[in-house]
Design brief:
Length: 230
């Protein structure tokens, strides 16, 4: 009995681990309950959420260069409101000392921009690493919103100026192309409920540019499609 006891205990633990949700599933469930339907994206490292989370949450992944890519500008550009970190992804395993230091510094900066909402600790009875869910601080989100508003106001002024010039030169393909390009940038800095209408206006400008100058063939329209895809 004494010899069999350790094996029985390990088997029982594996059965429990099979039936209990892992830490990644718990993190997904918490986010679905508290964040589903809200504006903004959830940034994850490569080991913090199961792949199925993408189906129900606005999750984005910076890939294996997570800490190298994620800076203040990235958070604002990607409309990140929350981020999820795993203990395993934060480890400096098999990194050179210099790379480990850079990763630790980047990780520390990321924590400065976040407010811890919940920690799901690792456990021998559950699959998965320890996971922490953060909210980007309200102060930083307000800064991003002000920056977005300033950028959008500047772009609207530029679009208006081009549109006024187009009023007297409606078949100017170059002006049409410029108007479409500016509108694409404006859509990228606009709220979701406004962005689609702006995209449509940009697409129309690129189409009209192609029609206005047959010598350009489909070049303006193809460039427009490229901007739309970006």
């Amino acid at each position: 009995v004494a010899c069999l006891a350790p094996s029985v205990a390990l088997s029982a633990r594996e059965v429990v681990r099979f039936w209990l949700p892992g830490t990644r599933q718990l993190a997904k469930a918490w986010l679905v309950e508290h964040q589903a339907g809200r504006d903004g994206n959830i940034l994850r490292d490569h080991d913090s959420l199961e792949a199925a989370a993408d189906e129900v949450l606005p999750v984005i992944d910076a890939g294996f260069g997570f800490y190298a890519k994620v800076d203040r500008a990235y958070l604002g550009r990607q409309s990140v409101t929350h981020f999820v970190l795993s203990d395993s992804a934060a480890q400096a395993y098999r990194l050179t000392p210099a790379a480990a230091q850079r990763k630790a510094e980047a990780h520390a900066r990321l924590l400065e921009w976040g407010e811890l909402l919940v920690r799901i600790p690792p456990s021998g009875w559950r699959e998965g690493p320890g996971i922490e869910i953060y909210k980007v601080t309200d102060a930083l989100l307000r800064e991003f919103e002000l920056e977005r508003q300033r950028e959008a106001a500047g772009l609207r002024a530029k679009v208006k100026a081009v549109e006024e010039r187009l009023a007297s030169r409606p078949r100017d393909a170059v002006l049409r192309l410029e108007a479409g390009r500016l509108l694409c940038h404006l859509a990228a800095s606009s709220r979701a409920d406004d962005a689609m209408g702006i995209w449509k206006a940009a697409e129309d400008h690129f189409r009209q540019a192609s029609l206005a100058d047959p010598a350009l063939a489909d070049a303006p329209y193809n460039l427009g499609c490229l901007y739309l895809r970006v």
